Amino acid sequence: MSQAEQTETVDEDGVIESVSGPVVTATDLDARMNDVVYVGDEGLMGEVIEIEGNLTTIQVYEETSGVGPGEPVENTGEPLSVDLGPGMMDSIYDGVQRPLDVLEDKMGTAFLDRGVDAPGIDLEKKWEFEPEVEEGDAVEPGDVVGVVEETVTIDHKVMVPPDYEGGEVTSVESGEFTVEETVVELDNGEEIQMHQEWPVRQARPAGDKETPTEPLVTGQRVQDGLFPLAKGGTAAIPGPFGSGKTVTQQQLAKWSDADIVVYIGCGERGNEMTEVIEDFPELPDPQTGNPLMARTCLIANTSNMPVAARESCIYTGITIAEYYRDMGYDVALMADSTSRWAEAMREISSRLEEMPGEEGYPAYLAASLSEFYERAGKFQLINGGEGSISVVGAVSPPGGDFSEPVTQNTLRIVKTFWALDADLAERRHFPSINWNESYSLYKDQLDPWWEENVESDWSEVRQWAVDVLDEEDELQEIVQLVGKDALPEDQQLTLEVARYLREAWLQQNALHDVDTYCEPDKTYRMLTAIKTFNDEAFDALDAGVPVEEITDIDAAPRLNRMGTAEEYEAFIDEIESDLEEQLRALY
Amino acid sequence: MKEYQTITEVSGPLVFAEVDEPVGYDEIVEIETPDGETLRGQVLESSEGIVSIQVFEGTGGIDRNASVRFLGETMKMPVTEDLLGRVLDGSGNPIDGGPEIVPDKRQDIVGEAINPYSREYPEEFIQTGVSAIDGMNTLVRGQKLPIFSGSGLPHNELALQIARQATVPEEEATGDDDEGSEFAVIFGAMGITAEEANEFMEDFERTGALERSVVFMNLADDPAVERQVTPRLVLTTAEYLAFEKDYHVLVILTDMTNYCEALREIGAAREEVPGRRGYPGYMYTDLAQLYERAGRIEGREGSVTQIPILTMPGDDDTHPIPDLTGYITEGQIVMDRDLNSQGIEPPINVLPSLSRLMDDGIGEGLTREDHGDVSDQMYAAYAEGEDLRDLVNIVGREALSERDNKFLDFADRFEQEFVQQGYQTNRSIDETLEIGWDLLSMLPKEALNRIDEDLIEEHYREDAGEEAEAVSAD
């Protein structure tokens, strides 16, 4: 949380009236809605969420044990804001942007103590500022005035803050500066630093939204191949526990071809965040080869951390994402899990004794969700450039029941739906994305990209796969009744082809060094190899070869090894020619 | 310390009292009834002039003349290494007739969250000696892995077996530190019957495990509200032993269902807006504050591993208690009524079971190179066999292909030879995996699509397939 300016506008202090868990009421506090306040003798951070006469209700971002009536409440007069500037990549924050590594130092213990604050970015560190404007240039809000090398991967662009007026540059610095030192001055007296602040609940300004036409390549076959997400698109991953939501989210964070990844662990497990902290610095970014952490910002508000900070962590994350979007980057934001966020809203709402909506969630649940997802998109920027935010939200429906309010309200907004399936997970089919229930509304607008960058018959081949899987679904119902052998031979063969589609193509081993990432060309090539088997096998069947002989050939099971093959091109070529040879030898 | 005789309302486990000085949220309260009995409670809500208090031991005997004392501090647990070997009640008072406990320090029972940045990712394999766990759902140090059970299923036997057998094999091999490989067991009973409690105590005493255990007993007839405190005392003790005294601690909490019932009871008494099935909306957060107190911390020797046990009402895993638990814990071990009635011991159904931390705790150098592949393949094959069972009921075995029949046989033998082992058998991970290969070798080599080809060459029993065929032909 921002400390830079908090001393300026201290309004009159209030006094605590009552305390109930994270909700505190205070009297005589002169505050506006959403102002940040410091509560009690320990100065716990909180936010004003209701004003009623002389009574102000505050949600507190820290544990309130031991806090009692009579203790002071101090108003900062500022809404909850994030510090934006170089140093956000390769960091890990809690829900109100306190860096967890700094907190560990300051608190001197592995446990999260109370009443300790720290700025979101290092105010002491000096960065090498390279100007991109000269004296006499006219600049407007959003314009880039200089560049800082933030990490090996990311050039951090220093911009004129969107709430400035802009004007003519009167002086420009170059060299090493801290984020609070002025690097550019304008003729109207405005001073530009590398550091900006922005209130988290307010979207940063941008121009019009455009229709996204480029896929966010995830390196996951089922997602890229069947249910693609666009850069600037929105997706939801609902699934019961144990269906692999977190692994799917982490795979996206690791392999998707976004420039920047903001990963929000919202009310989830502590060890999962630790895993990301330990793994990401070691893993190479498939685009640049640099450590993944160099393009990643983590926000960790685990399930046992204060519930009010869980409510705010989503906003903290999306505001950071918007800031990098304003630099012209393609940002991917993963929120795991939005259900925990909704539950935090519910908890606070019930402490406020608000009238509950469906299943106890506040009536404004749908509005809050759509407000959040609408901050995604491909945007014209105010400086004329382009940038995008793709949002992937995990949903944890109670009992795996997708009819509950969070899933339903999310589905009304997002355009890609990756439905995770407990049955698939139980038989260790991962990623357990159910191909019958999932959908992507971006498919058609992304096809031209695939046809141009991968292969011109992409959409036909994909449609073939979809048809086979559909047919299998229908046939399975009959098989459940009469057994496989009672089906006509051509349908038995279709089932066999569908089995390869599922086992060799849709399944992907996230733990295997090679298989964990599958580039679009390989996704296409693997699919065509299965189609080759299909075409040759049906030719053989037409020529009168019994179906058992066709399915018994040696080459076919090797299709299952395509994903893990290191030199996949040679490997698949060989399988294809073996398939042809062996199948043609049967007739 | 001021005393008040200002109780205005008593309602279920709650007492409301007027005060003329500020009282902190969560503070501990002592209430003395006119009969001279002292009850303890905690401040649930503190407003100017009035506080609501939740009484742990139940509000029986309190009237408007009872006196209320605010102790000015939140609830603390006196901790010391000497707790090992002791039996305490659900509020932390010794009930074993032993000497008074001289605390090393008094620690707040509402633990602070571990900074995710300071955690160390758990990846040390714990050998429980139970094949269905070690082979298929491996437990690692610092994990929280609950047992999802049902009424009348032998979850207690399984928990005791794990408590008895759990070791970290590597340390056994180095051999210079015998204590290091064993776990200190902290057992927290919430609302279990006296009979169950006796079973546990007898087993602890018989095996000598009590020496390295601390037992907290809140029995079925103890006040329900006390159950709110018991697991927090357990975990505070566990954290102290693990992170300050370098113990590897195994925490067994039974039965979490009773804990959640108590939570609901208090929520109802406070007239809160209920969530699903009447449980409070904050139950996820509340449970997380217990379960997340497992783990490892960078730079500290010890660890806290949790095995909470819960009985699923109606064996329904979508019920809020197992559902919310599953979303917080790192997997679950699921007990199955059908397997139990078939006499499989332990009746673990591996299909819905899961260990999220397994992948990082197994493999070359940790367990064995083939562990991951073998487990994956057995999952897939068992799931296929299970599916086919439904079909067999309709069309009969003859209508199935040879391949399908092999999978059916696999599923049967998997239950009877791999899962079945009895509560006294302690299998090493090698034994477990070898049984796995015995079973997998019934299947044709080409069907083993989850296993690396080199590993198949190394371990596949070439003659086993024929044997199995001979058996099924009989």
TrEMBL record, chain A:
Transmembrane segments: none annotated. It is found in: Cell membrane. It is a peripheral membrane protein. One of its GO terms (biological process) is proton motive force-driven plasma membrane ATP synthesis. Residues 16-77 form the ATPase F1/V1/A1 complex alpha/beta subunit N-terminal domain. Residues 448-549 form the ATP synthase A/B type C-terminal domain. One of its GO terms (cellular component) is plasma membrane. It catalyses: ATP + H2O + 4 H(+)(in) = ADP + phosphate + 5 H(+)(out). Keywords: ATP synthesis, ATP-binding, Cell membrane, Hydrogen ion transport, Ion transport, Membrane, Nucleotide-binding, Translocase, Transport. It comes from the Archaea. CDD domains: ATP-synt_V_A-type_alpha_C, ATP-synt_V_A-type_alpha_N, V_A-ATPase_A. PROSITE patterns: ATPASE_ALPHA_BETA (PS00152). Component of the A-type ATP synthase that produces ATP from ADP in the presence of a proton gradient across the membrane. The A chain is the catalytic subunit. Has multiple subunits with at least A(3), B(3), C, D, E, F, H, I and proteolipid K(x). Belongs to the ATPase alpha/beta chains family. NCBIfam families: ATP_syn_A_arch, PRK04192.1. This is A-type ATP synthase subunit A. The lineage of its organism: Archaea, Methanobacteriati, Methanobacteriota, Stenosarchaea group, Halobacteria. The gene is atpA.
UniProtKB/TrEMBL annotation, chain B:
It holds the Pfam family ATP-synt_ab_N. This is A-type ATP synthase subunit B. One of its GO terms (cellular component) is proton-transporting two-sector ATPase complex, catalytic domain. Keywords: ATP synthesis, Cell membrane, Hydrogen ion transport, Ion transport, Membrane, Transport. The lineage of its organism: Archaea, Methanobacteriati, Methanobacteriota, Stenosarchaea group, Halobacteria. Has multiple subunits with at least A(3), B(3), C, D, E, F, H, I and proteolipid K(x). PROSITE patterns: ATPASE_ALPHA_BETA (PS00152). The keyword Ion transport applies.
